[in-house]
Description:
By secondary structure, the protein is mainly α. The chain has 9 helices and no strands.
Amino acid sequence: MDPIPAAVPTSTVAPIASVAQITSATPTVSAAAAVAAMNLVGLLAFAVAGSLKGADADLDPFGVATLGVLTALGGGTIRDVLVGRVPAALRSTGDVLVVLAGVAVGLGIAAAVSGGTGRIRDHPAFLVADAVGLAAFAASGAAVGAEAGLSAFGVVVTATLTGVGGGSLSDLLLTRTPVVLREDFYATPALCGGVGYVVAVAVGVRGATTTLGVALGVFLLRVTAVRREWELPSL
């Protein structure tokens, strides 16, 4: 009449198997969630920064939107091509919607600050958005490169190109030498982020901790460089 004794062995084994599966899957899920979060943050931030860059160049609204989309999607597209996969923006509309939202925010900020003195590119809104985008994309680029099985050099390359690729493409669209090649301490934080990711993995730090730590480090390095006006020497 009492079925509990017969059910105990079955119910006891099932939870143990489930806990083992969850435990083994947790690091992968956490790492994937961190990369996805960094990708979204980078898309939004670079869409804002690209739009402000377009407004600073006196482009019309369509031109501003185009520059925002290119800046946001360029780096990730280069990253995905390097690791041999279809760019995320072509596989789902989610990334595109995030970018369009960032463009709308950028247009709003541009309208609000355009009446002031000085360049929009020197405004804190642009500098912060650009630093956030650089940090988020450098971290996601390093993580994607490592996940694809690239060498240490390959991880550093994907981190750097993901971080600076979109901005460089937008500079070319504006018919000027990319800022990363002529002035400012810009690509160096992304490169350092890639190296930091490789070192962290080598000493056993993995998953979301590595990705988020790299993003924070790149952001702080870039902000410090802007505040202290660091520049690499020119030849």
